[in-house]
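A quick aside before the break. I want you to see a complete sequence-to-structure record at least once, exactly as it would be stored in a machine-readable document. Don't worry about memorizing anything.
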Amino acid sequence: MPTYEYQCADCGFEFEKFQSMTASALRKCPRCGKAALRRLIGTGAGIIFKGSGFYETDYRSESYKNAAKSDSGTGSKKVEKKDTQAETKTGSGCEKPVKPKNEKKST
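That is the input. The structure line, written in tokens, reads:
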């Protein structure tokens, strides 16, 4: 049920009334008693869609969002896989030569 805004054309009194959409507009001013009320066009309120057809993360609390950020920083580290074929291919000369482990370094 929406909230409608009213203004009296005679005394200028403004108020809001929570009414059904099918209810007729009010005519009598609650302050002066004259039949000079006008229903105003309001901006309305924001719509919040809730239910199984919407994203569940749309309306999460700030504490939940902060906890999710801290978890994602530590839990999603990338694991690099070595490509065995890339080591055997000759490339553009940017690769370092691979030395066997038992070979001693020359000084």
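Two observations worth writing down. Helices lie at 62-75, 84-88. Residues 31 and 45 are 26 Å apart (CA to CA). We'll return to this after the break.
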